Amino acid sequence: xxxxxxxxxxxxxxxxxxxxxxxxxxxxxxxxxxxxxxxxxxxxxxxxxxxxxxxxxxxxxxxxxxxxxxxxxxxxxxxxxxxxxxxxxxxxxxxxxxxxxxxxxxxxxxxxxxxxxxxxxxxxxxxxxxxxxxxxxxxx
Length: 140
Known about the structure:
alpha/beta; Nucleotidyltransferase, domain 5; elongated
């Protein structure tokens, strides 16, 4: 048996059509896989989930706001406090029920050591919830 390699006299045109048979084969296989897996995914135990609306977090008036500037100075509601005074005040509010949260506003230039000292002091006073106040990035 022979094979036609082409002759010098043949002027056949190049076929400019894409063969879509492999594409159709792959799509049929994917369709079959999805048809098999959909009943497995939708067959679950019926439970009624609780509905909840997400509200933006608002600072409660009883929460303590501590600010730490870039030099490491600590301010309690805009009033400067040293580390001993801070510990004393935090111990006083730690016994309240419900216990207030401590929100820390740290300057972007503040060393981590200064923020770490405030966190340790807050934990030593027995405060359970510490949060950091940040600013969302500017859109532009």
